[in-house]
Batch of 4 targets.
Target 1
Amino acid sequence: MMNREPKQYDTGEVLPPPTERYTVLGWLHKNLFSTWYYTILTLVTLYVLYIVVKPTLNWAFTQAQWQVVVVNLRLFMVGQYPADQVFRVWIALHLLAFTAGMAWGIFFPRARRIGAAILLIPLLFAALPFISNFSRVNWVLFDVFALLGWGLAIWRPQAMRRPLLVLILAYFPILILLIYGIKPILRIVKTNLWGGLMLTLLLAVVGIVISFPIGILLALGRRSELPIVKLFSVLYIEIIRGVPLVTVLFMAELMLPLFLPPQIKIDNVIRAMAGIIIFEAAYMAENVRGGLQAIPKGQYEAAWALGLNGFQTTFYIILPQALRNVIPVLVNQFISLFKDTTLVAIVGLLDLLGIASTVLAQPEFIGRQREVYLFIALIYWVFSYAMSYASRRLEVALGVGER
Amino acid sequence: MMKQASVPFWRDERVLAWIAQIVFLVVTVAFLWYLYHNMITALAERGLLPSFHFLKLTAGFDISQHLIPYDRSSTYGRAFIVGTLNTIEVSILGIIFATILGIIIGVMRLSTNWLINKLASLYIEIIRNVPLLVLLVFWYTGVFLQLPRLKEAKFLPGPTIVSNRGIAMPWGKPTSTWHIYLYILLVGFILAAIVWWRLTLIGKRTGRMPLVSLWSTLTFLGVAALGWIGLVIFAHQAPLAPDLPKIQGLSTVGGLELSPEFLALLSGLVFYTAAFIAEVVRAGIQSVSKGQVEAARALGLNGFQTFRLVVFPQALRVIVPPLTSQYLNLAKNSSLAVFIGFPDLYSVAGTIHNQTGRAVEVTVLMMSIYLSFSLITSAFMNWYNKKIRFVER
Amino acid sequence: MKRTLYLLGILLIVGVLLAACGSSAGQNGAQAVKTVIVTVQAKGGNTPSGFGTTLKAVKERGHLICGVNSELPGFGYVDQQGNYKGFDVDFCHAVAAAIFGDPNKVEFRPLTAKERFTALQTGEIDVLIRNTTWTLTRDTELGANFAATTFYDGQGIMVRKDSGIKKLEDLQGAKICVATGTTTELNLADQMAAHGIKYTPVVFEKADQVYGAYDEGRCDAVTSDKSQLVSRRTTLKNPKDHVILDITLSKEPLGPVVRQGDDQWFDIINWVVFATFTGEELGINSKNVDKIKATTQNPNVKKFLGLEGEMGQKLGLSDDWAYNIIKYVGNYAEIYNRNLGPGTPFDLPRGLNNSWINGGLLYAPPIR
């Protein structure tokens, strides 16, 4: 757009913007001790920090007994998933690494340093002293697959876009088939053996993926001009949003078996999933509706002027734009769902939090509450923080809000 | 559109729309009826046909904290009310404290003091990325249960007794003049309302708005203080007698006793929600453009006036809608109390289901109570939102 | 105006989806009606509850589904390899051994106290072996049948030694930790009301939380089944500082539970339990069972081990059912000692849970 007089800027020496340069003392003065009350605030804060941090670090490095975590690492990660089948979880992870590597290469081709930093994390895991050699090899493989995907994307960015999309769309069904099994090839692993972090992540993924289409339908229904459809959507959304997730889970656990015909029996993992889907669909609908409302009316009018019918307008013009706008919101919804899956521990599933209380019942590890809860809090924190960081990057990359 | 009559009815959009709706309705109703039918069949087999008769039966279990009288011979219905009141109590207190803490942290987040600013962001980043349930467990087992035993209890000035049985603090015990004092308070309230009304009128007429809230609050407090002194002088009896806690046998007696479960739940909810409210507040204040502040300063308003008259009212419009959803979240999140043993609505409902086996009735009751909380809160906040939007003109 | 058209499209999708559900609904409804007409005597069809249906379903499935506790040391918990272990869990293995001759053909469902009866009623599990107390209400209203008691227990109270609490009356004003959804909670309320003692219950969902809170000094006392108190005492920070009072608040017979309506299945579970008793009475255990089977001349032993009398077939099982139980899981004494006996941290005296020969209550009807 601004190609009228570019030469001047290209050739001329570009001066860095003026910055205020400080000495260390100058920086301290400006940021910490500029006025008397800032000085007091700073000193008080430093004192409080000292009081809190010192005993905590002291405990973590000298008193805490982390053996409980080391010994039960597999339980925390995959629960009671059969040990000889854990390779399936690894395959799913490798495929994820490959897909993520590809996406990284296509969307952030220049962010090599951050990518390399992320790749260091699995290597770090591989270097941990107490894990099995099998896990070690797999963590290295994880990086190899990520690099492979990234390399492909860098090599042929344009040609790889479509395969990437297919991979992303196919990942969910592949994941479920891998974990659950297919009769002749892979042994079926019943959902009651799913546990730990794997169950937590699966619940979150299943919750988001399946509630997505339902949410879109509800959002369209809520914006519809048909009174009955609208009423139904509004009622569903508002009722579900008005009650806590744990009561929906309570309902799913106790009442779902009553609603189903006697021949159909579903176990409590599936019931929890159903509860989560019922709950998330309402929130999904509101997120999608937000995206729909952001589409200017001109888009509808332009589409009709081009002779598109209602169906085409919705699915080719409006929804793609709306969904692109809501992707960051959906990532946030995924993060909060990831945290909310802890509630299934209340209804008795062995997710990360649930497995923690089981581990705490092992006779040799009674009274290790702090170590265990701190460990799982750290896992939750690392995952949510990484995802929210990624979502912020994604927001920038997608250029949401920049039009 | 003019030739509507000539369009055959099977291509008339309005007719089609209605047919579609009727089909939708029929299918939905049929589906729901089918679920209902399954349920009734299954329940009939177990002899548990839906009926709320059980609410009149004796509960048989005790509840540790109750705002209204309750013991094992009370009914299930009363147990429900006890749980509901506990939920309301913790939600209201949680909302008040979370708002205060959230505003403080939100303002800290905007501070130019590097340490305070970073500390606030660190707090927000840590709390927002950890599940509330894990936080609650931490507060309960990691903080409140680690306090000293009752025998080695700490006495803070007051006396306030701090132990892992909770915190017992001095409180007032109503005396014979308490009900008279209530009338005095009512008078004070009416006077305060009149002051509010008059000052607002004056403000509107002169264009110089006095500190309305401050003056009316002072009026109320003044009347309350005068009334207290008057009662002491004329009736020789203060309306409230100090009720000091002391240790007697296995527990503390007297004063206001707060259990560790209640404190842990409240702290967990407050510290968790405050992180979200802080972000809401920060976004609200940042949404007010810098030009507004500069213009206000150019008009000669001081820092406080700028904030009270220019920044705050505008920020409030951005803050209130997301704040509402945070309040609703807090009320709903209080249902996690069950994990740390506080007898809230969900916990009591769980126990009732357990003892009676009446899954359907308990679920329906519990969900409708939570739903009405949400509806009432959002109705109130919508009203408030409209009210402050009106100021916008 | 054209917007209605796209809504129509969406509606059609919804409609088709719902119609699909609706139509299958109609079919199922019709089927249900048919079954009722054809088999009048079968009361409902919700769960495979008619005679023999559970065993058939279990055999078709190829494994047993057993509802257990996942966090009660000694009775049901998950070890570091992710396997279920414990006294109750061993009885699940015994049932599997009796049916399939393979103790590992069991799938375990961890259940909280709350959800256990729902799981049983809806047929999610075949048998519930989760320290469940036999009461009249549960036996009747909840549609459950209690098989032979595997563990005679009583509700007790544990306090700190230095608290000086000796009897119930000393608990005036006390805080008492208790698990919700149990008979324990109700017994406590009843007993305290009967003695006119004021107390505050501190109620938790899970046993782990109850003892955690007690250990931290949240409560003056904790109440539960005595066996649980003993097993949990070993897991407190300083087990020696705690004492279980010589008070029994209630009788707590614990045993396997099945759905009402399938008498064959009820018999099987009962006799699996009796087989472990009989094994102890006859002195047969997993180590000597093969030798005894090869050499025995005792008719009772022969019937028991399936060498004569076709006892197993009367239950719908193979004749070596009891042999399999003893061989793969062991007799009652072995199960008890393995999980709760002297070699374990619990070292729980047999007490009432001794064979009648040794003055206990375990008394198996004769296998003949």
Target 2
Amino acid sequence: MLLSILRVLTYILGIAGSAFILPLAVAMADSDIQTALAFLSPLLAGWTVAAAFWFAVRKRPKIFDVKSAFGVVGLIWVAVCVFGAMPLYFSGAFPSFTDAMFESVSGFTTTGASALHEVENLPRSINLWRCETHWLGGMGVIALAVALIPLLGIGGFRLIKAEATGPDKGKLTSFIANTAKSLWLIYVMLTVIQAALLHLAGLGWVDSLAHAFSTMGTGGFSTRNASVGAFGSPAAEWICTAFMLLASVNFALYYKLFTGRVREVAGDSELRAFAVVVLASTAVVTALESSTATALSQTLRDTAFQISSVISTTGFMTADYTGWRPPSQAVVLMLFFIGGCSGSTAGGVKVVRWTILAKEIVNEIRRIVHPHQVFTLRINGRPGYESLIPVVASFILMYFILVLATTFAGAISGLDVFTALTAAASMVGNIGPAFGQLGPTANYGSLPAALKWWYCFAMLAGRLEIYTLLIMIARVCRVPKTRTQD
Amino acid sequence: MTIFIVGAGFTGMQLARMLVLERNKVVLIDNDAEKVRHASDALDCTVLEADGNSIEVLEQAGIASAQAFVALTGDDEVNMIACQLVDSAYPAVLKIARVRNYAYYSAVDSAGRRMRASGSDAVRAMYGMDAMVNPDVEAAGAIQRAIEHGAIGNVIDLKNDFMLTTLGVGADSAIAGRRMRELSGVEGWNGLVAFAEQETGALIPRGDMVVNVGDTLGVVSRTSDLARIAQLAQAERETFRRIVIFGADRVGSMLIPLVAAKRYAALWRSIFGGKPAENRREVIVVDRNADRCHEIAERHPHVHVLCGDITDEALMNEEDLYSCDLIVAASGNYELNLVTAAYMKSKGANKAIALTASTAYGAVARKLGIDVAIPMRGTVVDSILSHLRGRNISAIHSVCNRSFEIVEGDISGKSRFAGKKLRELGELEGEFLLLLTRGPDGVTEMPNGDTVLDAGSHVVLIVMSGDAELLAKICGK
């Protein structure tokens, strides 16, 4: 079992290492030798270990049981984050390993909270790598591994399930590798389209690609201090708005769209609820923020961008929402706790969980009036979702416990309570910016190291939807004596 | 005719009795010694204690020379296998099976229909069954027809928008006290009385018969004329906005999709209650079995499913079920159906339909105030008989507790009556003829003395039960 775990771990590090090629090429093009070496050394190390393992144990069977699947996924994510932090640290761009690690975790979990206040001085390659971590973490490194090489064998679906988001995970095609390939293909296509559009809107190639990575992964890192607003291009802002929303929709729906199941997509309960939330909150905030001083088109653009950025858990900024009127800020705060759709690259609680709970609440009210009536819970017109109610309810409870614990951690470290609370929601929901001291214009660099490590944990727990990470911790910490009991 | 019947249960016995009455040679097979003893005492036919799905047993009993094989055991699979077995050895025998599992029934039925529609001559009967009978499907259909026509009585749909409806004659009826021949003079009476049930018994009415209050008439009419006829007979007719269905087992679960609304009820109304709007219909299903309730709720999102005991007064008050427009008692417990329907009606339900064990309960049901009683067992025998009566007969509906049969069929060229006018038929005077349609696309008419019985016409007749001779005379063999 240990062998299987190590093998998968090394293979995935090999794949993550291959992702260094892109920033490495940019560093070479800029003839930035120090940064190039910072990418090249972990790349070679990763490949060497992976190759060694491949030659040594390729003939052994690949089997994962349920218990280890969750543990392995947690372990892989921690390992990938550490690996991704290496070039950031070696290149000297980050003052400490803690900061590099925070940046890497924030990248792979698609949070987008930066430890730096100044990113425009960084080498282009480092900035591209920061955004690429979003892209890799958004769809999931394990899904990528399954799509590229058939290395996970029988337990593959379990691993992907432990990494994917949402309460109800299924396969699109009969083979999990085909499902992973289809989803990654759609992901790549959307990314390429967005990068091309951004380039047309006037951005340079590296900027376009970096922001496309960041948008599609719903991350939030930018190559500019002032985020997307720095380009001063309305077109680029609208493109980002659209693709942030596209990236927070369940990717399975694109697959259905391509296979002609349009009716299913139109009838998707989660998509409808998501659309209602986005449109309603945009309308409300636009109405609240519109004034004679600014043109309506400008207000609408800013509102739509910020709303999309928060609900998709991206964290790009073109306007500072902490300067908005209190009711508008309240709307944004609500969006902090909603998140995108299941099966997307977005974080947060996920719309479908709230949909299930809302339907259950309606049923509960009707049950009081009609105690003998039999009620069903339908999602996408299909019954049988009652069994998910306890799963969803306990997830949401866990989610809020984690948010409150993280709030406490922030408050101990000297943040005011409002900042600590919103930062906690931002970390667990993988959003990025918060309110107060840690608003869109601030950064996380000045926080104490211990709090950064706790935030790393909170971001990973949020991205892996809590249980995966808890199981990993439970397995790692378990006393060997109890091993016979299961 | 030699007919094999496997399974000597209620339906098997009833069918055997009908066939023996028509002087057929019947071989009844059952593997239950007690049933066999009872059957051989009661019926004048061969009764064997053996397994009906054993080809050796069937061969010894002479299946080779039989015309028909009817499988009526309590086991769908045994019935289907038995038919398949007979089919593989003796394909010429007409094979009929009772199939109660709706999944089997609908799958085989639709597949068979699809294959026949493909037009190929080589199409074989599915599972060797020339015909399947499903009592639940037929009962659910009968209930649906009764509901759609306002629950004034049992409804039989006939050709070209004609129908036969049983009507009770109300106290202030415009036709009460009149003779049969005077009815044609009553404004708006556009119907033909096929049979009447009076206190003295059931009869095919002659011109001098007087209609009394409390009689039940079987009236043939156009669908569009029914409203006026029902009004003249003072049988109240309604459209239903709030229907309570008691029992969601076989018949009930089949009935729900036939009558249920296709839209959700408004949320505020499902919380605060109240009657549905004029053009909406609310269907409430009550069943005691929690699993069944859950399944129905999953399958039919627009239906309110209540899991509880229909005899629980608290539940009925809680959901205000007494104020419903119609109660349909369609559970598998036929006695409880009668009691429930009668009780609900006495508590304020406007109309009541009850699923009963057999036609014998019809009179009792009417006395209890139940508007329509749908017999469960009679329909199976009818539909089997219609298959056995030859190719000219397309349907048989028993009425008046099996006193008469309403027969739909075609007049063949071999008929002794073909080409004759009704008044030339002497003693019969054509009272047996209810409707006649000339040719495949012809106009349907109600007959008079000058109507000619052309060969090739489609006819609807009423005959005494078991009067196969008259049928043979009219339609030809």
Target 3
Amino acid sequence: MSYFRAENLSLHFGGLKAVDAVSFAVERGEILSIIGPNGAGKSSIFNLISRIYRPTSGRIFFEDQDITEEPPYDIAKLGIARTFQNIELFENATVLSNLLVGRHRHSTTQLWQELLFLPSVRANEKVHRRRVEQVIEFLDLEPYRDKLISGLPYGVRKVIELARALCSEPKLILLDEPSSGLNVEETGDMSFWIRDMRSELGITVLMVEHDMSLVNRVSDRVIALNYGRVLAMGSPAEVQQHPDVVAAYLGA
Amino acid sequence: MRFLFKTDYEDDIKLFPHSGYVVSYGILLALLLVAPYALSSYLMSQLVFVCIYATVGVALLILTGFTGQASLGHAAFLAIGAYTAAYLQEYNVPFPVYFLAAGLLTGIIGAMVGFPALRLTGIYLVIATISFALIVEEILARWESVTHGNEGMRVKALSLLGVTVPRDSPTFYYLCLAVLVLTIVGTLNLLRSPTGRAFVAIRDSETAARSMGVNVALYKVKSFAISAAITGLAGVLFAHKLSFISPEMFTLQLSIEFIIVILIGGTFSLHGAVLGAIFIVMIDPFLTYLKDDMPGIIAGIAAAFGAGPATAGSIQSSVAAFASLNGLKGAIYGIIIVLFVLFEPLGLYGRWLKIKLFFQLFPLYKRATFKRQKIYVKSERNR
């Protein structure tokens, strides 16, 4: 049994088949990249997994549990975190409170306890704060702790979004174009972090990416999509030489 | 300028970042405690209204400022609190019981309003809350067996532990102050714990909040319930302060006044609720003063510029006629809102922060410090 599995996943908008009977599996501790031209359905697959869209048909399994019908907020509780292609941070809050929202799935305190800020709440807050600090250290975000998101540059926001996802201590992380908008140096950092996430934090990574150098550096396996269908699956080199993939990118 | 050197995670959690805050808020509290012995009874009465309005302002800030759900129905929540108190008082229910009962009932009704609000955002939510307020107003006028309809209800002076507390006594003021302070402390506690952060997350990006495990629907309803419950508690005090309540006191105009409280005070901090409450309570006597004295003053100026007694008299009467126009107050409120939104979007508290920073950084203050820049446009919003 695979760690994470999508079976015949489809998403149709009327006649448009954004995702068409896609099946794939992710093994524990693997870094799997999804590549494909614009509109191939990569982000749609992520949105299906995090339940922003409801699949037209097909099923999703995580740790041998069918999660197709789980409500969206429970996906995070199961240990699946994600980042967004166009950065969805909490703009008018500080970096720290953004990261602390990432800890939401671990909060156990009740409303009345929070109103009184009982010692249990305080103790919990310190645990959250410590965990957040570990992520800040992991991603070198020390200079930005108390800054508002709205004043930060794009590259930093991208890292903060990754940090927020890591704060939830996920087992599986979905990265939607982690390197988009980053310069070469920042992309290099990102590739180290993605590998460290797997080796140091034991997180399984599923990512959508356009930058082939990043894909080649970090991925164990690659899936190529076009028009919602799987074209090829295998090692980065295999997929890049696959005739259908070449045709999809360069034209027949 | 003070640089905070944080050495403990506690430094990020505690309410007062440094000792300066403790000193200044301590002085403020001491002044508020001795106020009944220093201020005239008129000012004391205004101060009680400031406390009540500020409590409602804090409630509205939780909902609008921090959860991002606009409401023009808070006069209705205030009314429900006030009428619950007046009704239960007729059956000799003791004050603590009907005080809490009013909060509980309003909270439950707030949650019920929150459910339909789950599907509505922005202007549609505002319309829904207005309709709710109009429905409540109508019920208050028609349900005569409970509310006595348009005749209104008398509210007796409250009695606490067997002692009667008249509405203009210092004890009543202390009670209102205590409710305000406890509300603020409770709200601050909420804001530094997971629930408060979930509220802010919903305000800024529902999609991201959901993907981080926040049950958006549940927290929106929670926010509505908490906000309504606090407003209900303020409603009890409001009823006692006025000693008489009738449906026409809880109109849309009152809801708009509450919106003014937070818009003018500043929607990003609880300070805004208090500053806005001071503003709204003090502007009323100021407008009355203008209405009574302006015609005479303008006529006097006209006379000084050589206008004859007849011309001055006609100027005075036409200005007086203008000043007593129906709806002028609403128009002035409208102008104030527009001016603040255009020129002081961060409100009075924002202005205070700017002044403070100006002196802290003198002479290096830059006007653009508080300018919000929006460079990155979100193209794909998954609602």
Target 4
Amino acid sequence: MEEKIKLSPDSFEALPKAEELDNEKIAAPSLTFVQDAWRRLKMNKGALVSLVVIILMIIVAFGSTPFINHDSLVKSAPKYANLPAKIPGVPINGLNGKLKVSGEWVDEYKENNVPANKYFVLGTDYLGHSLAQRIVYGTKISLIVALVATFFDLTLGVAYGIFSGWRGGRVDNIMQRIIEIISSIPSLVIVVLMLIVLKPGMTSIIAAIAISSWTTMARMIRAETLQLKSQEYVLAARTLGESPWKIAWKHLVPNLSSIIIIQTMYTIPTAIFFEAFLSFIGIGISAPQTSLGVLLNDGQKNFQFLPYQMWYPAIVLCILMIAFNLLGDGLRDAFDPKTRR
Amino acid sequence: MRKYLLKRVFYMILTLFLVATITFFLMKLMPGTPYSNQQKMTAQQIQIMNEQYGLNKPMWVQYLIYLGGMLHGDLGVSFQFSNQPVSYLIASRIGASAQLGIQAMIFGVVLGIIIGSVAAVNRNTWVDTLCTVLSIIGKSVPNFVLAVLLQFYIALKLGWFPIADWGGFSYTVLPTIALGVGPLAETARFIRTGMVDVLNSDYIELAKAKGLTRYGIVWHHALRNSLIPLVTLIGPYTVTLMTGSMVIENIFSIPGIGEQFVKSILTNDYPTIMGVTMLFSAGLVAVILITDVIYGIIDPRIRLSGSGD
């Protein structure tokens, strides 16, 4: 049965050399984790727009610091009180200094004998403060609160989670019970208690958010650390005698980074909401200081007659919240493609 | 199961005890006095008042009295609300808050499930986009802003519902919507994600192959399985509703717990603050325990081990 097949060298044909090499070539450049996430984030238009909006808001809010000082913010000017928005050269009713009073548009600037060259881009509040200035300042307060909440999430939450997960056993058990207790007290109650003990204001809001914001982060970090702990590369590092600190910093934190980023993005809108909420019901930041919540509360009282006083801060607050929520969703999809739908 | 329950109840009591202790001592650190016109009162009057409210005893005695009273359901006497017992104040106001909270929860969850399912079934179409946009807006617009807008445009301008106060069902409609939008948005997102997951699974494929209708598949197979994890959200929703009640009840002048809480904070009414704090904490702890147990029962894959999960 066996037959010898004779193969002569010329029955083979060499392929062109270049093509052969191409098969081996990796087409896409290799990307690092962050580059990969950024590539995915760029495809998400909503998240990208939100990112731009947030950056703009940060620039405007913090860049305004030298221009909006505390004195001009607090000094009231009753003769300019309750003026609607006026932007020179914009002939739209509502933005040209006119206000609808019992169905008719009345030029409030003329009625109140405001000098012709004086105008307020977003109008004034009941004490004659420029609403635009107050809104920018309020946005700054919101962003500062967000920043502080993030800071505690990143430091306390991450460190607590890693430590608890890494140590395991009894320590872990006790640390988890502590978290369980803290998180079963409604954060509202913690906030209120802090506000009562400290004076209402920035410090107490920040302290309250600091106490209540980090537990979710700590829980998630701990769960993930428990898994990472048994990974081979961590085992290898331990076998080589690496110190736990270095393992945590070099191996755990980079591998936890996606959870950290995603969770932070959920903390921020919550913190911003809480500040606005507390100021709105009158136990947060109080006059003469201002924040978006205070502005909403002031505006709400006159909403029937001067709707712009509530609409403008409400719009800014909503944009801020929507932007952070959209960016958070975008980052989650970018860093954790498994959850992507 | 019994061991797990006992352990959980023990932690529940421990938590409440800690909350009571912390609240009590924080109250004592509070600046300001409970008397609104202390300057006008003579030293003797202040002493009599202190004696009447037990404020002249050493702090630890006050603490023990407080804890002892709480075991009997005695939360002290309100400083502000015409000397009524706090437990009576709470009892007389809890009905409105509970009704509002339950209505808002049902409104949010049911509508959220519908919107989420519709979005998942019509995935990547304009319907889905619309639902996603709505849920992002619902999640982002603070409920107190929404409440003011609803009150003004629907109640005042259109006159469809009463502007404020507490009467029949029509008085509850707007506050329910304002309070329920947060849970609604969250539920819709959650159901959509879960449902898309389930719709891609093999047994849905099989159900399709069997020739079941689209409605049958969604109703019998997809929805049931994506509903289970929703139980875990009841705890967070309770927190949202408690927080929301403080501001919504104020805006719509509803005689509920939240409105009273804000008033008592603004007037340094320690016993009422402590009472409502304890009520909120107890409510949340109980809800978390109940949902954990329910979750274990309806989804046997979750073991009720209690060993640090």
